[in-house]
């Protein structure tokens, strides 16, 4: 019996050693980088969550890009509408200025037409004085060249204005003016003056008709709005 106890004790000793060695080996593996099933499952779960978050972020980024494009399109549309409204307001202001509803001021030119200072003996005096045709020619050239507003001897013209002469006197919208006739025009003087002075143009024609012409560049010309009854007459 004693021999059996000794053998049994040896078996238990060896078994304990193997269990201890196996535990120590498992512990060593955990320490050198090997992972347990529980750790692997945890890591897999975290990786899956990260992948899901990344997919969600990509979807949100795509949605954000879509919204940004929509906002950009809306901004472009509003910008276009704003430009349209601005152009409409600008056109209305121009029309009001042309019909004389608004006071205007700006750079421009001044054209003075005078009767000839000398009439040869025996000549017809009417061939040496300013007529409405001369004034019309100057006004038309100024408008064609881009003048925004025109006045004659301070009388601002409108779309309903009328001009005619009676001897040495010119009537503008019912008001009579003797020579000299001062025609003021608001606009770019660097365009208006060359248009008047072009070779064979208005100035040359007036000189041929014995009219004395004086051209001046003006830094500021002010024209008051027309009265309602004047602009509608």
Automatic annotation (TrEMBL):
Pfam families: DUF881 (PF05949). Keywords: Coiled coil. It comes from the Bacteria. Residues 50-84 form a coiled coil. InterPro entries: DUF881. The keyword Translocase does not apply. PANTHER family: UPF0749 PROTEIN RV1825 (PTHR37313), UPF0749 PROTEIN YLXX (PTHR37313:SF2). Belongs to the UPF0749 family. This is DUF881 domain-containing protein. It comes from Metabacillus halosaccharovorans.
